[in-house]
Write a structure and sequence with these properties.
The complex is a heterodimer.
Chain A lengths: L2 E2 L14 E2 L3 E5 L3 E7 L3 E11 L2 E8 L6 E4 L5 E7 L10 E5 L2 E7 L16
Parallel strand pairs in A: 2-8
Antiparallel strand pairs in A: 1-9, 3-4, 4-10, 5-6, 6-8, 9-10
Chain B lengths: L12 H14 L6 E2 L8 E5 L3 E7 L8 E5 L3 E8 L9 E5 L4 E8 L10 E5 L2 E7 L20
Antiparallel strand pairs in B: 2-3, 3-9, 4-5, 5-7, 8-9
The chains are: A mainly beta, B mainly beta.
Chain lengths: ~120, ~150
């Protein structure tokens, strides 16, 4: 289900309006930075990710149903958030997948940004 | 060794409000960005003439980690969101998602037939279908026009 995110060059993928900021967890391993973003109610086809000018823009359109709502705590708004990327990410290898309403994005680090163990020579 | 801290969701509320302010400053005009509350899961109830629908936001939680109970007037959602298993030497840079056990009891606006209740999950939304008891179902009442009044 993993797919490479396209880098598109439209002016904006975001229509005007009110948005909800999705919650995110960010973690870092030796070779990558990972994002876990919760977007309940967004189908895979209604998710847009754009990378432009060192920014990752994520937009998720929620499924709206014509129900007569008796009670709600949900905002009924689409999701939108921007992340600034570090300089050392391999932009062409960014990948994203979606599972159970959570988006997982992996940002691979460039070779030069991956930590390497430096040998220490003991001089007697 | 994994350097992962567990944090209750609430501790990050101040960070979130700061972020929201930043967004307001940088935000496009006319856009209002809304932050989430602590209640988990967030729900909505839809009242149809013959059934109720309860939707709950459960992003990132597997079906097998959720249990659902129902009585004639209540539905309970409980379960656990597990921390993702990261490789060793993982550093957690930001944590806004909540982990751990959750339980929510929802009182229903009508009495339901809890033998006929069904539920499904899609895109992180749990949808519970609760048929109303016969006597609670809304029925149209016929209005008879009396054209002639007997003397």
């Amino acid at each position: 289900m993993t797919e490479v995110v396209n880098r598109f060059r439209e002016t904006s993928i975001i229509p005007e309006g009110d948005y909800l900021i999705p919650v995110v967890d960010i973690y870092e391993t030796k070779n990558e930075i990972g994002l876990l973003i919760d977007m309940p109610g967004v189908a895979k086809d209604d998710l847009k990710i754009q990378i432009e000018n060192k920014e990752l823009i994520i937009y998720g359109k929620i499924r709206k149903e014509n129900d007569v709502i008796y009670y709600t705590e949900r905002y009924g708004l689409d999701y939108y958030r921007i992340f600034t990327l570090p300089d050392t990410i391999e932009l062409d290898r960014i990948a994203a997948k979606m599972e159970n309403g959570t988006v997982m994005i992996t940002l691979p680090k460039e070779e030069r940004a991956r930590p390497k163990e430096i040998p220490i020579t003991v001089i007697e | 060794m994994a350097v992962i801290r567990w944090n209750p969701f609430t501790e990050f509320e101040h960070v979130r409000s700061e972020m929201d302010q930043l967004w307001q400053l940088a935000g496009s005009e006319g856009s209002r960005l809304v932050s989430r509350r602590d209640t988990f899961p967030l729900i909505e109830i839809i009242d149809h003439p013959d059934h109720l629908l309860v939707r709950a936001e459960l992003a990132g939680i597997k079906r097998e980690d959720i249990r659902l109970y129902g009585t004639y007037n209540k539905v309970t959602i409980e379960g656990e969101r597990y921390f993702p298993s990261f490789p060793s030497e993982t550093i957690q840079l930001r944590n806004e998602r909540s982990y751990g056990q959750f339980k929510r009891e929802i009182e229903l606006p009508s009495q339901i037939d809890n033998n006929q209740t069904t539920a499904k999950m899609k895109d992180g939304i749990l949808e519970i279908f609760l048929p109303k008891r016969e006597k609670e179902q809304q029925k149209e009442i016929e209005i008879i026009a009396e054209e002639r009044i007997d003397p």
